[in-house]
Design brief:
globular
Length: about 625
């Protein structure tokens, strides 16, 4: 057969495969258009999937799989083209350092663009302004601020306000966020840590399996919507993944017999940083790695063993002392963490402005223990949500079985997965569903690396079996096929949901630009009505003010007009305004005098404890 005939035949085959993939996607979207309002997701759950998100997953499971398979076959065929071969050879000639730099730049640029263009620069959760507050505290040299006068106005769902004013969260992420806060660009810190995660993933997979696995793993990391959406926020998960990724790389090096002192100090530092950010996730993934490190150290000579242990102990003890010192300063005891103090403060405060309407006496932060079937149920829900949200694929775990166990030391990554799943089995919820089960964010690190390992190992296995070039290309082509299918199928529904939420969440800040500062703005709870969008959001409270309460605009809780007027006696130089929501979901600001004449409803502080009379508030 002539070269021209072969090229023509390949072109027709590629066109047919692409047409089939497009048809499958068209069917998927037609089902949504005629039956589910174009898959307006109407999210807002922290447990099971909502309706119509569930029907989307059902139809995506079928038609997304067909589209991905056809796209993958098309890409495998395209690889025979001369231009594709030339491109592949150019990539092979590129050095690892150049690849890591290019991938790192993408890992920085993508979430930064998502934050500014898709999320419109807003917070998707109440947690984010709380983290910024903690960073401002650290920059001022403090671990808590003094509670303000008439503190009930400043109570916040994630803040402790018992004379000391500080957040329930650990201080690791605020410390890493602080440089961005100081520069006025906190939104760039998570993209930076995402970019710094790329070399760790690349070098880990390269050491385990080779360059092919490293490139596949990093491409999966960059194409994972859940990873990029998380990095576009100011939540703590991206920085925790960054620390755990470097801990993984250094542990793999130690497992290979590297006895350099800096390596052991690096393992301790990376684990300690992750623990300071999210202790449960750090223990879940880090403890298996620590056992691997200990086994590697045990095999060293006595002299090198002592050197490694001392190198590890120095940063570990330093970070440990800092962790306990923070607990002592904030909560009064080295073993009493802020999460526990938040629960106790909620009881003391009558559960007003609390995350919980009530708490059992044997309450454990974030965990609810029970029968084994409860753990299985919660794990099943979490993994199902993760399966779709991670890559946007119908099956995110498709390459995991091919990663093996003993080959390429995949067991290191499997132990990380196992440790995470077991330690999170009784977690009360997998987390908000705005962009994925956020409480399971850190498990994406070993899953992505195992997927890269599995795809590369499957490719190498087919090659050793003497399979045809087309067949040996299929695993990598299928990865690209899943990415392409997600890009045109699953991802648009997620992107629109995020934009819809961001459009509503940015309205108070946009409207507040017209306020002549300084002012005090009284707001009700929830801060933004959830009825304002099909997709439900998770912003219930106002932005946390600066630690010294000197912002041009102070956002405070609306109690009653009489109580509000009482607070304004302490701010005679500020304008007092009440934020109300019009029927079209647009915020308006009215003066306290007008609010009194309009007889606006009292605030909703929650809890069962009545408000003290205005004259008794101090």
């Amino acid at each position: 057969m002539s070269i021209q005939s072969e090229t023509l035949r390949r072109s027709w085959a590629v066109a047919a495969l692409l047409a089939g993939a497009i048809l499958s996607l068209s069917i998927f979207w037609s089902v949504g258009a005629h039956n589910y309002d174009w898959y307006h997701l109407r999210l807002g759950s922290t447990t099971v999937t909502t309706d119509p998100y569930t029907p989307l997953l059902v139809f995506w499971g079928l038609f997304g799989s067909i589209a991905a398979l056809l796209f993958g076959c098309a890409f495998a065929k395209i690889a025979d083209a001369n231009w594709a071969q030339e491109t592949y050879e150019q990539l092979r000639a590129t050095s690892d350092r150049q690849l890591m730099l290019a991938f790192s730049l993408l890992a920085f640029a993508v979430p930064a663009l998502i934050h500014w263009q898709l999320l419109l620069g807003v917070d998707l959760t109440d947690d984010e302004s709380v983290y910024r507050f903690s960073s401002e505290l650290l920059l001022s040299g403090r671990l808590y601020a003094d509670s303000p006068l008439m503190k009930l106005f400043y109570d916040h769902v994630f803040m402790i306000n018992d004379g000391k004013y500080y957040s329930q969260y650990f201080m690791g992420w605020p410390a890493l966020l602080a440089p961005g806060v100081a520069l006025g660009l906190p939104e760039l810190m998570n993209p930076l840590y995402s970019a710094l995660t790329v070399p760790a993933i690349f070098m880990t997979l390269r050491d385990l399996s080779g360059r092919k696995a490293a490139v596949i793993g990093v491409v999966l990391f960059l194409s994972a919507p859940m990873v990029q959406f998380t990095a576009a926020t100011q939540l703590s998960h991206t920085s925790c993944i960054f620390a755990l990724a470097w801990m993984t790389y250094l542990t793999v090096r130690a497992n290979q017999g590297d006895s350099a002192r800096w390596l052991h100090a690096g393992i301790a530092t990376a684990f300690s940083v992750a623990f300071f950010i999210r202790p449960v996730a750090a223990l879940a993934i880090g403890v298996p790695l620590l056992f691997i490190w200990a086994a590697a150290v045990r095999s060293l000579s006595p002299e090198k063993r002592w050197s490694a242990m001392l190198s590890f102990a120095a940063p570990a003890l330093l970070f440990g002392a800092a962790f306990f010192a923070v607990n002592a300063v904030q909560n009064g005891s080295i073993g009493y963490v802020s999460y526990q103090r938040a629960g106790d403060y909620a009881r003391e405060n009558g559960f007003r402005y609390s995350a919980w309407p009530r708490l059992p006496d044997d309450w454990t932060p974030s965990f609810g223990f029970g029968a084994l079937d409860l753990a299985l149920s919660r794990t099943g829900i979490a993994l199902t949500r993760l399966n779709f949200a991670l890559f946007g694929w119908p099956c995110a775990f498709i390459f995991l079985p091919f990663a093996g166990w003993r080959s390429e030391r995949a067991w290191i990554l499997w132990l990380m997965v196992l440790g995470f799943v077991l330690s999170h089995a009784y977690l009360r919820t997998p987390g908000i569903d705005t962009f994925g089960p956020v409480h399971y964010a850190e498990i994406v690190l070993p899953i992505i690396m195992l997927s890269g390992l599995g795809a590369a190992r499957l490719t190498n296995g087919l090659h050793k079996m003497g399979a045809s070039p087309l067949t040996t290309r299929l695993p990598v082509a299928l990865c690209l096929g899943f990415i392409a299918a997600a890009l045109f199928g699953y991802l648009p529904a997620r992107v629109y949901a995020l934009y819809e939420v961001a459009d509503v969440l940015q309205r108070p800040a946009t409207a507040a630009q017209e306020i002549k500062a300084p002012a005090v703005v009284f707001v009700n709870r929830p801060f933004i009505p959830r009825r304002c969008a099909h997709t439900q959001h998770f912003v219930f409270a106002h932005t946390v003010n600066d630690p010294d309460f000197e912002n041009p605009i102070l956002w405070v809780n609306h109690l009653t007009v009489a109580h509000d007027r009482r607070l304004m006696e302490h701010h005679p130089d500020r304008l007092g305004l009440v934020m109300l929501w019009q029927s079209g979901c647009e915020p308006v600001f009215v003066s306290l005098q007008d609010a009194e004449a309009m007889r606006i409803p009292d605030g909703r502080p929650g809890g069962s404890t009545p408000l003290p009379p205005p004259e008794e508030m101090h």
